[in-house]
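Table S2 (continued). Query chain:
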Amino acid sequence: MAVDASTTQSVRTGQVQSLTRALSILNAIADNPPGLSLTSISKLLKLAPSTTHRLLTTLQEEHYVQYDRDGSLWQIAMRAFVTGNGFLTSRDLATVSRPYMRRLMELSGETVNLAIADENWVIYLAQVESREMMRVFSKPGNHVPMHCSGVGKAILMAMPTKDVQRIIASKALEKLTDKTITDMQMLLSELEESRKRGYALDDEEHAVGLRCAAALIYDEHAEPLAGLSISGPAARISQERLKELGRITVGIAAEITTALGGRHP
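Corresponding output:
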C-alpha cells in the first residue's frame, strides 16, 4: 500500500511540535520551583488548556512532572532530576574546556591555563601552550599561591571579604617577587578593582617577567568553578595588551560556563 508523503511529513511535524511544546512546559515549570497551575502554563506558553493537559499527563506518566493536589500545581518530578544529574556527573571540566582553551590560545598567541582552588592554593588542571619559542609552561598538578597568581586572584575576587581573610590568614602573604602584594588591605583593594574589571591580573607578582590575565568559570549555582588564564612573558605582554587579554579571557570563560551548564551571578 502506498504511503502519502505529505501525510508522513504532517505526522512528523506534529510529533516535533508536541516534543517542543512538552520541553517548553518542562522548562517553564523548572523556572518556577514552587510549581505552576495548568492555567498559568497555558497562558505563559499560549497553548490551549486541552493541549497543555495532554502534554502534562504524558510527562507525568514518564515521571518528569508531578501534580500537587493540595496546591493544584504541577512541579518537576524525580525523573527530570535524574536526567539532569546524569549530565552533571558526566561533565568533565578539562575535556569540555580544552577546545575553548585552544581557541583562546590562537586568539592571543599566548599560553592558556585552567585551574581550580584547593584551600589557599590553586592547582592547574590543563594547559594549552603558546606556539612561541619563549612561552610559559606549568605542568598539570602544579600548585601556586592564590594571592599572587591570576587564577588565584580571579577566584578570590568572587568571594566575600571575610572568606578571603580566612583563606589568606591560613597562609602568610608570601613575597615571591618585588611586586608581590603582601599587605591584606592592598590585596582586598586589588580584588575590588578586579571585580570592577571582571578579570584579575598578575603583573610579575608570582614570577619575574611573567604577566597573566584571568577570568572565572561558574557552575550551575553561579559560584566559581575554575579560573581560566592567559599567561606570557612581560616582554611580549605590555600593560595595555594585558587589559586586552583580560577582556578576551572573560568572553571565552563565559562560553565555557555556558557549555558546562553553569550560570553567571
